[in-house]
Predict the structure.
Amino acid sequence: MCVPSARRASSGSRIRVHGGTHVEHAPSVHYLDAAYRPACARFGLRFTLDLVRPGYFPKGGGEVVATLEPLGEAGLRGTRMMERGALVEAVVLGYYSDLPVHVGERSVNEAEKRLRGVCRARDIKLVTRHEQAPPARNPGGVALAAARFQHGMAAYQAVAKRGRAAEDLGREVGEALAAFLSHGEPSPTVDAKLADQLLLPAAFAAGETTLRTERVTRHLTSNAQILRCFAPCEIEIAGNDDEPNVAVSVRGPQSTSEAIF
C-alpha cells in the first residue's frame, strides 16, 4: 500500500489499518519499524508508523497509522546494500499488553544473555528495554531483537502465546540475531524475511538494487516470480532455496516515468 500511495500523492498520505498488529507468520509493527521502514528510506520511501492500539491473536482489534512523505520528482531510487558498514544500533525489546511486568523482563534478559558473547567479542553496545503496552482485546506481546548498520538491517520477532514461556521468546530472537551478527565476510546485509519484502520497492525503483540475503526462502523466490509477471524489472537470485548468504539483484525501470503505478 505504501509504494503506490507515495508514488501517486502530491502531498503526504495517511493510511489507517485495523486488525492484528502482532501475530505469527507476519511481520509485527515493531519489526516493520525496526527493519522495513529504514530499508524503505534507502529507496526514498519515507514514512512513520504510529501504533495506536495493539491487536493480538485471536481477537485482533489493533490500529496502526502510517504517515507517508511524498516521493517528489526523484521518485523511488535503487540502492546498494552489499556491505553492512558500521553498526548503528542493536536493540532488544519486550512489548506486552495485560501481562505482568516480569514477563517482558524475562524475555529481554534471556535475549541479552544469548547475545552477550557476540556483543562482547565485537564490542557492540546492546540497548535493552521492555514496555508495558496499552490494553488490548486479549493479552499478548512480542520479543524483538534488531540491528541496524549503515547499509543493512535485520530484525527477529517471537510472538507471545498461551503456554509459551517468556524465556523461549527471548532465546529465539537472541540466538537469531547473534547468528546474523556472527557471520564472517562477506556478510548478509538483510535478514531472510526482509529480503522478500524489499523486492516490491526495488522492482519499481529507478536503477539497480543489490543486497545480500541471510538465506534464500520460498517467499523470496515466489515473490520474485510474481513481480516478474507485471513489474518492469529483472530479478536475479544467485542461489537456491535455503542457501545462505546469497546476493540478490533487482533492476527496475530506467526512470521513474516507466513505472506502472
Q: What stands out?
A: The chain has seven helices and eleven strands. The longest strand covers residues 87-97. The longest helix spans residues 101-121.
